Amino acid sequence: MSFTDLPLEARPREKLMALGPGSLADAELLALLLRTGLPGKNVLQLAQDLLDGFGGINGLLHAGLDDLRRVKGLGGSAKRSNLAAVLELARRAMAQGLKERELFESPDAVKHYVQLQLQLAARPHEVFAALFLDAQHRLIALEELFRGTLTQTSVYPREVVTRALHHRAAALILAHNHPSGCVEPSRADEALTHTLRAALALIDVRVLDHVIVAPGRALSMAERGLI
Question: How many helices (H) does the chain have, and how many strands (E)?
Fold first, then answer.
């Protein structure tokens, strides 16, 4: 059945206008954005395949441009750029909502924010970042501080201390990714965390957590009792 063969009340645009956007399934909302399908596959089927391929809306929300380029049916730059723009708007809206609330004492909120804002899981190389917080643990700034290779990155405690002083931070949350896919902290990760805690303690800045991110997963060292 082609998209145009659907009854009017089943077509996403008509359904939205009649019943509101809340009445539409995820695939129907995505179909409105995609607008057209492929030969032999209507836009609703394409939308559902896209959701299935990324594991639902949450997975799609973390997709980067390179991920979208690999999807058959999104080869056209206009369709791909439209989808990327909407996903970025959604990410920014969610990140702003987190930033405006005092949620950074919750490991789950921290993991979600880091995955959403930095998209660390999609990086092919190690990236080390820091969230600088005020005394109420509200976000002051998020900075990507160092980049490395597939297996390691060089982190300089003096630079982290300098940035903490620059932002007049009262606390920090550290974050980095493991491109290997394993989120278990290595001995080097634990040693680095302890080194940074000691260096930052000299300027009265607390390290609240160190989050390790991999595709589809994140680990809080605070939850593990390692901080």
Answer: 9, 5
Q: Name the residue range of residue 43's domain.
A: 3-96
Q: What number of CA atoms fall less than 13 Å from residue 160's CA on the CB side?
A: 28
- The pLDDT tens digits for 17-50 are 877 888 888 888 888 888 877 777 888 888 888 8
- The pLDDT tens digits of the residues spanning 147-188 come to 775 455 688 899 999 999 999 999 999 999 888 888 899 898
The predicted-structure confidence for 43-89, as pLDDT tens digits, reads as follows: 888 888 888 888 787 778 777 777 788 787 676 677 788 888 888 88
Sheet with strand 217-220: strands edge to edge: 139-147, 127-133, 171-177, 206-214, 217-220
Return d(Cα 27, Cα 45) in angstroms, integer: 8
Rounded to an integer, what distance in angstroms lies between the CA atom of residue 121 and that of residue 218?
9
Report how many domains make up the chain.
Answer: 2
For the record, the structure tokens of 26 come out as: 């995820």
Please report, for the domain that includes residue 214, its CATH number. 3.40.140.10
Tokens 């969610």, located at residue? 94
